[in-house]
Amino acid sequence: MKRFSTSFIVGLLIGLLLLASAAFAGNPVKLFVNGQEIQPDVPPQIIDGRVMVPARFVAEPLGARVEWFGATSTVYITTPQEAFTPVEAPQITGPDNFVKVIQGALKLGQEKDLLAYAWIASNLKEIKFETNPAPGFETSGAYINKETKTCYVVSDHFNDVISESSISEASLLYLGVLAHETSHICLKEAGFEYVLNEDDEEVVCNLAGLRVMEKAGGTNSDKPVWFFKELIKKDLKL
Hints:
With 238 residues, the protein is an alpha/beta fold. The chain is built from eight helices and ten strands. 49% of the residues lie in helices and 16% in strands. Helix 3 packs across helix 4 and helix 3 crosses helix 6 (167-190). The longest helix is centred in the last third of the chain and has 24 residues, at 167-190.
């Protein structure tokens, strides 16, 4: 996948050449991008004969977007002209209206919070419409199989949501649900399920869902945001 435009690479090389010239003139190292001096909060350094420059402070003045994806310890640098999809979307299995809502949720994440989308998509393998939920999950909105990384959306809950919400509201809600279930996977892989009780884990996962919805444009006037806040209050016994 192409990540740098030609103009970006030329600009970057010019900036680095100017920086290298300054490096031999003595410390501190000065950073110039397109002729303008940049003063990053972490200054450039010479380490083992190489000039180390904070990527964000070189890339952003040249019009690029710099994002840190912690799930894979990756820095993505893209220009506005380039399409950017760090990972493929999970497989979506279910009826057409279900696929439409889940696709809407993932698209909302891509447009409003690319890192949240990449985090969700890199952890979930499949999002499945479940008409026969596993024992104990019959009244749940969704649940996760942490081993197969399959998110099951309970059909009865989905049908209730669709009957009471617009497509955009449903997509916002299920963006939060996907973030919630993704958090369960991450907590397990990080070992937190051994130190958090069930209520603690639900609070953390619901907070993750809430924050992702808010970054995607959700406000207190939106039913999905209100719903997640009520869940958090319940879990915290407020």
